[in-house]
């Protein structure tokens, strides 16, 4: 049986399977799904902490309700992945204590620059997450349709957050391009590390 036929047989749907066409040495579909859940749980936890840090600084300003709205959406995402961690018996990342501190610190530090700094952080993080979620959506098969659909729904909400940041002068933050590059690079490192640890 070919790998493509094996993926269809495993999916039970006759559609495209997760990691269809994978090569020797690639993770198994089960390992890939576990990594996906682990890293997305960690990322949503970090995102919630970023907004908590921003709210600690800007919560009583006119930007407080916007930040609270985005934090509430991140909480829904986090709760979804926390449920999947338990349901699927996926080991969460051991780095949650690091993301607890780092997320809050990043949020508070960028908010101390002002609302533009906070919004620049939001844009950078959400653009990195958009790429990450788009790649997962493309890789997950019909056998993981519910997970794939949640990821796409969450990706659309992350893009809404990016747009809110852009509408609120993110690009006018001091050293915007440099700040954006540094935050995106940090997100990509956090993603790779959280997949495995």
Can you walk through the features of this model?
The protein contains seven helices and no strands. With 197 residues, the protein is mainly alpha-helical. The chain has a single domain (24-196), classed as Alternative oxidase (Ferritin, Up-down Bundle), CATH 1.20.1260.140. The radius of gyration is 18 Å and the shape is elongated.
Which descriptors would you attach to this protein?
single chain; 197 residues; mainly alpha; Ferritin; 7 helices; 76% helix; 0% strand; elongated; disordered N terminus
Structural class: mainly alpha
Would you tell me the overall average pLDDT? 90
Helices, by number, come to 7
Give the strand tally.
0
The CATH topology assignment is: Ferritin
Write the layout of secondary structure elements.
Layout: H1 3-11, H2 29-58, H3 64-87, H4 96-113, H5 115-139, H6 145-167, H7 176-196
Helix pairs in contact: 2-3, 2-4, 2-5, 2-7, 3-6, 4-5, 5-6, 5-7
In brief, what are we looking at here?
With 197 residues, the protein is mainly alpha-helical.
């Amino acid at each position: 049986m070919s790998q493509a036929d094996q993926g269809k047989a495993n999916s039970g749907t006759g559609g495209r399977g997760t990691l269809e066409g994978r090569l020797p040495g690639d993770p198994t579909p089960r390992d890939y799904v576990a990594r996906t859940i682990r890293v997305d749980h960690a990322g949503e936890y970090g995102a919630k902490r970023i907004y908590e840090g921003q709210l600690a600084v800007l919560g009583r300003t006119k930007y407080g309700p916007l930040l609270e709205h985005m934090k509430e959406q991140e909480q829904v995402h986090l709760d979804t992945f926390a449920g999947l961690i338990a349901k699927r018996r996926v080991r969460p990342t051991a780095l949650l204590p690091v993301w607890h501190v780092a997320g809050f610190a990043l949020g508070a530090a960028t908010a101390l620059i002002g609302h533009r700094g906070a919004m620049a952080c939001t844009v950078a993080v959400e653009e990195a997450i958009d790429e990450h979620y788009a790649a997962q959506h493309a890789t997950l098969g019909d056998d993981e349709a519910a997970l794939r659909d949640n990821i796409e729904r969450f990706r659309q909400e992350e893009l809404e957050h990016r747009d809110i940041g852009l509408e609120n002068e993110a690009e006018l933050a001091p050293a915007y391009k440099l700040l954006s590059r540094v935050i995106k690079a940090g997100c990509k490192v956090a993603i790779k590390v959280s997949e495995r640890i």
